[in-house]
Design goal:
5-stranded parallel β-sheet; about 60% helix
Length: about 525
């Protein structure tokens, strides 16, 4: 730069751009940053800023391309390394993410942003203890008021099942930022308000009078709905849950027509039955896919199976759905191919290798892996085509229990945006039933259906039947699944740490006539 005035002018422009970035106006960031890069091609910070804006616009390809360019010029630029690690984690390239973040931390071992990104990566791949070990190094007087550090530690302890430490760190977050409601939502999942939590409930009610953003207010209402259900105050519980879902509906977009079309197209693609038995046995790892509607018992089944020391509970792996949507659908939602028979075999082999490589990046020692992504129920045909020797367990549960549980819980995933209204939940549930009937007619011998209600009534019998279907060894650990210390990341994280209980069956009936509308829509 030729002059002090020019330098000051650039700094002012960058400050203005940062304000747009902070407000989430990523289009404006791109619009203002690109000409600056042309004028000042040697200012590396501009490339990092532009890459983050592209990432905010869901254009990870362009973001990665920019940051790789930075590394070609400055291989040890820790900010580019950190941003690449964060973006690769977001698009589920876990191996690449870990490599970039590890290099950034090797260059600067007190680089908190990289450490926090790596800790969140560890949580994604079920390594909560590694996340805790990494972040504990940053606990000092200087970071005592660091909200992000305390929040990530709280999440890690929660996933590991250490609820006492988890609550301690969530409460630290509330002391740092009393208006934040994410910690309240997390605490509510671990608390039975009938036995404990009266102070927390009182504090949440006080917060309702605070000036809260829409997201925080939505989370607070979900938390209060859960608390009042624990207290058997179903009238108040329903009022708070209605408020929560109304707010969440305003924050999300759901297109029921588009959703229905996707299900119809899936049935069209898989209209012709595939020949599973003609496939060869491939891969050293055995995979058990656990499918079903969210809140149908998929987490419970994984927790039972992963009580076997030779079974790794993979949790909700995002790979099947991502591959399927890219393979079968165009960006505008239109179908790519009207039949699976028209797709080249090497595409499925490529995906099989890609899936296994991503899973093996978790450094799994066990011979058997479970993938309990509920929405894989859409892709049974694809799973059997790609992994002909896998086992598929379909979790079935009373429709009202499923739909009500979908409504009363908060889910951050965009795939759950149907769950904010009775009508959308009922319509989605019917789409689920329809496509599962479609798969059962074609591949009944390849799918094991386990009833949540029967499992609760006679666990030993039902677990033995399921284990026999999976061709795995029996262990009494299955019956003591709640002692399983493996990581749990879903809304069921507290329930699966406890023995089976019957009170979860037909729990919706406690709300009486208030749920007649939902019942009518489902039936």
């Amino acid at each position: 730069m030729n002059s002090l005035n020019e330098k000051n002018n650039l700094e002012k422009k960058v400050k203005d751009i940062l304000l747009f970035y902070s407000s989430g106006n990523y289009e404006e960031v791109v619009f203002r940053t690109r000409p600056l890069i042309k004028k000042y091609p040697d200012i590396i910070e501009l490339y990092n800023l532009l890459a983050l804006a592209y990432y905010g616009l869901n254009n990870s390809f362009e973001a990665i391309k920019l940051l790789n360019g930075v590394l070609r010029r400055e291989p040890n630029n820790i900010h580019a390394l950190n941003n690449l690690g964060m973006i690769h984690s977001a698009i589920n390239n876990f191996k690449e993410s870990n490599e970039f973040l590890s290099k950034a931390l090797k260059l600067k071992n007190d680089f908190f942003q990289a450490a926090n990104n790596q800790a969140n990566l560890f949580l994604k791949i079920n390594k909560a203890n590694d996340a805790i070990e990494l972040l504990k190094k940053f606990e000092n007087d200087e970071n005592s008021k660091n909200y992000i550090l305390n929040f990530t530690l709280a999440n890690a302890y929660q996933q590991s099942g250490d609820f006492n430490n988890s609550r301690k760190y969530y409460e630290k977050c509330l002391n740092i930022n009393p208006k934040s409601c994410e910690p309240d939502k997390a605490i509510s999942l671990m608390t039975n308000y009938k036995n404990d939590g009266t102070d927390h409930l009182a504090n949440m009610k006080k917060k309702l009078n605070s000036k809260l953003g829409k997201v925080d207010l939505m989370l607070l209402n979900f938390s209060l709905g859960k608390a009042y259900e624990d207290l058997d105050d179903y009238k108040n519980s329903l009022n708070y849950l209605k408020n929560a879902n109304k707010l969440n509906n305003e924050l999300t977009e759901y297109n029921s027509t588009k959703e229905k079309k996707i299900f119809e197209n899936i049935k069209l693609i898989f209209k012709e039955k595939i020949n599973i038995n003609s496939q060869n046995n491939k891969g050293n790892k055995k995979i058990i896919f656990i499918i079903g509607m969210p809140r149908s018992g998929t987490t419970l089944i994984e927790q039972i199976l992963s009580s076997n020391d030779n079974i790794y509970g993979g949790g909700e792996l995002p790979f099947i759905d991502n591959f399927a949507l890219n393979l079968f659908f165009k960006n505008n939602g239109e179908i790519n191919s009207s039949s699976i028979k028209k797709i080249k075999e090497e595409k499925f082999e490529e995906f099989r290798k890609n899936y296994l490589n991503k899973v093996l990046s978790y450094n799994i020692k066990e011979d058997i892996i479970t993938d309990k992504t509920p929405f894989n129920f859409k892709w049974v045909g694809l799973i059997l085509k790609t992994f002909p020797n896998c086992k598929i367990i379909h979790c079935e549960r009373n429709g009202m229990d499923i739909c009500w549980s979908n409504y009363k819980n908060f889910f951050s995933s965009a795939k759950m945006s149907y769950s904010n209204s009775f009508e959308n939940i009922a319509n989605y549930y019917k789409l689920y039933l329809d496509i599962m009937n479609f798969w059962k007619k074609k591949y009944s011998g390849s799918i094991y259906n386990i009833s949540y209600e029967k499992l609760i009534q006679d666990p030993k019998k039902e677990i033995k039947n399921m284990v026999n279907f999976c061709d795995i060894d029996w262990t009494d650990n299955y019956l003591n699944f709640y002692k399983n210390k493996k990581i749990v990341q879903t809304a069921s994280l507290a329930q699966v740490r406890s023995p089976l209980y019957k009170s979860s069956i037909n729990k919706w009936e406690k709300y009486g006539k208030e749920l007649d509308e939902l019942k009518k829509l489902i039936n």
